[in-house]
User: Which sequence fits this backbone?
């Protein structure tokens, strides 16, 4: 990763999690953790750190890996390696972690929704929900992050006009004004950076 | 009349295709000719999900094989074996024609009773 990212206060060498030694699956005994960027800069089972005068040229980091086309391309385009750029800060994204898609909900009472949102090197400024396929959006409640680059928790109380089939869509907006798209954004050869808004289906019963 | 026939044919197609596609329980691979070659030559080193989770044309699949041979210690194939592996991959895991976002899948929809309003 570039030095400016490595030198951030939030770029860490980690040996413990939740007061316990780091579990093996999480990279025991040491791992890097550079939040907001692709996992390729949060390597596990760390044994050494190298400061180099060139872009990473190690195994599985070359060619099309962790890269997207420097310029937008049509779906299915074959892109030469030299026209691919390394991904840095990840785009804004959010998830609904409750309820699960397919839930039945009795009409008359609002449905409580909750989830998390994050935004690469930015913070999440706003989160909105829609129950009419994006025609109208309602502002949800977003909490401040515990630390810079940490997940932000959010919640909403969603009203339905009556029984029927609904989808709840959630769309976060970062502190630079960038929103999650509703459809799949920017096709790229390896399928990276899909931050399309999360959707859950809700059957509202009489 | 012609349109009606065509419509009937279209309605029948997905069911027919579904019946023809048998998935191997242990590996998740589609059991069409050549699948055992892929099980043997690919599954020894990585999960079969690395295969089934990707879509590519024949040339791109060949590119992945060449990359694994150049950098990941994948052995060389005799030409006939390589052709059969590529036939299988290109036929069963081709690029999806539609790159746009699909509807929420049926498994994540409300159960039928909830939909009967």
Assistant:
């Amino acid at each position: 990763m570039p030095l400016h990212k490595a030198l951030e206060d939030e770029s860490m060498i980690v040996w413990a999690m939740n007061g316990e030694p780091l579990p093996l699956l999480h990279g025991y005994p040491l791992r890097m953790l550079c939040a907001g960027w692709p996992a390729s800069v949060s390597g596990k089972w760390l044994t050494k750190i190298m400061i180099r005068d060139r872009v990473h040229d190690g195994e599985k980091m070359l060619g099309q890996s962790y890269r997207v086309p420097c310029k937008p391309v049509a779906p299915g385009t074959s892109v030469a390696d030299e026209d691919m750029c390394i991904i840095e800060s990840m785009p804004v994204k959010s998830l609904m972690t409750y309820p699960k898609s397919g839930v039945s909900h009795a009409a008359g009472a609002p449905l409580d929704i909750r989830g998390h949102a994050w935004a690469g090197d930015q913070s999440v400024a706003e989160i909105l929900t829609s129950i009419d396929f994006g025609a109208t959006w309602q502002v949800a409640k977003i909490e401040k992050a515990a630390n810079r680059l940490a997940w932000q928790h959010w919640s909403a109380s969603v009203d339905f006009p009556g029984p029927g089939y609904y989808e709840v869509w959630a769309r976060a907006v970062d502190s630079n004004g960038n929103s999650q798209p509703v459809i799949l954004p920017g096709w790229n050869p390896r399928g990276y950076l899909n931050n399309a808004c999360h959707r859950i289906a809700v059957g509202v019963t009489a | 009349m012609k349109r009606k026939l065509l419509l009937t044919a279209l309605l029948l197609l997905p069911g027919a295709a579904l019946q023809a596609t048998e998935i191997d329980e242990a590996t998740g691979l589609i059991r069409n000719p050549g699948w055992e070659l892929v099980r043997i030559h690919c599954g020894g080193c990585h999960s079969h999900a690395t295969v089934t989770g990707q879509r590519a044309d024949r040339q791109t699949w060949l590119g992945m094989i060449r990359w694994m041979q150049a950098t990941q210690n994948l052995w060389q194939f005799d030409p006939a074996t390589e052709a059969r592996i590529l036939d299988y991959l290109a036929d069963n895991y081709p690029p999806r024609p539609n790159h746009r976002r699909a509807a929420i899948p049926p498994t994540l929809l409300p159960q039928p009773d909830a939909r009967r309003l």
